[in-house]
Amino acid sequence: MTSQRTLNRLFVLHSWAGIVTGLLMFIVCFSGAVVVFKNEIDLWANPSLAQLPRSDKPASLDAVLTQLQTRYPGATVETIALPDAINPSYFAFVRERGAPASTRTKVALRSDTGTVVGPVDSQLGQYLRMLHVFLFFGPRWIVGFLGVAMLVLIATGIVIHRKILAELFTQRWGRSFRVVMSDLHKSAGIWGLGFHILIATTGAWMGLAPLFEQGTKYVTTSANAAAPKPARKVASETAAPVPMQSLDALYATAQQAVPRLEARYVSLRRWGTDTAEASFTGNLSGHLVSTARVDINAATGAPKKVHDPRTAGFWSLVNGLMEPLHFGDFGGLALKWLYFFLGMTPAFLSISGTLIWLDARQQRRREAEATQGLSTNGAAAAG
Description:
Layout lengths: L3 H31 L3 H8 L1 H4 L10 H11 L4 E6 L8 E6 L9 E5 L6 E4 L4 H11 L5 H21 L16 H15 L1 H29 L25 H11 L3 E9 L7 E8 L7 E6 L5 E5 L6 H14 L5 H50 L1
Antiparallel strand pairs: 1-2, 1-5, 2-3, 3-4, 5-6, 6-7, 7-8
Helix pairs in contact: 1-5, 1-6, 1-11, 2-5, 6-8, 7-11, 8-10
Protein name: PepSY-associated TM helix domain-containing protein
Pfam family, one: PepSY_TM
InterPro entries: PepSY-ass_TM
């Protein structure tokens, strides 16, 4: 049986954890609920793209790359996004000649012919995802710590509201503002409890696991820091271009290396040089886990690095499950709506918890002022 003193301490921890993280928690949870519809939002923000034809047999990757190089001569094609169940078009991220190193142009291409349609006007869905994952410009571990804070709030909330199940269907609409909000706060917390644990755990994992991985690599490789590193070969700008393998042939090689790979993105690095690479990243057909990736030398066609989460070990499999479970992009439209509505509940909890705390604080101030007033009046009467 938890003592009253422990309950009071947990209540203080619960309150202050919510107040300190409340604003960021609301931003992350609200944007996370909305970003479930990232692709739909991008199409809505670019209505002309939704009108483009969807092809049952999309144009080849080679045709797409040729169209981009013809339309943007001298530009660097960095990424090609393939059509999917929602987006009927190819997309590409291009760094044009003379543009700042951080500036990319998102270009849409017809899926049937690979013809360049033009730059995409709005990337609203991507901006919302950046807000949710990185708070626009922050490191991802900040959002990871918010996931830990959410787990703390869940655990302390369960303990301090021991009778929450008995009061689950209690909503006292005719009572004070704080009582009404408290009932709504408890109901939203318990109805979405399983989902909240899932979102907090997966969010904390994705935000903090890379941090721990980098720390582990730093510790394990520090002993070899003094070892001479091989000289990195730098391609000369005046060197003759090196013939590249066909992108479609490279994709076939990637699918041989990782059976049932459905590439969503193709990333090109140092294209036209003897160290050029093409990376195929995507999902595994009929498998929940994501994401598989194959890096191939684009000059020779030889695979350089293969990541198949099905064969990479237990923790790799767990890590691959985190993103689809967090974003709910492994099902259809019904699952997205479920994630949306449940995702709004932690955003509501951050608001309602803050309002309850502020109302309680004002109530204590009014009671203190009333007590002080009675003491003053009593002293005056006695005098």
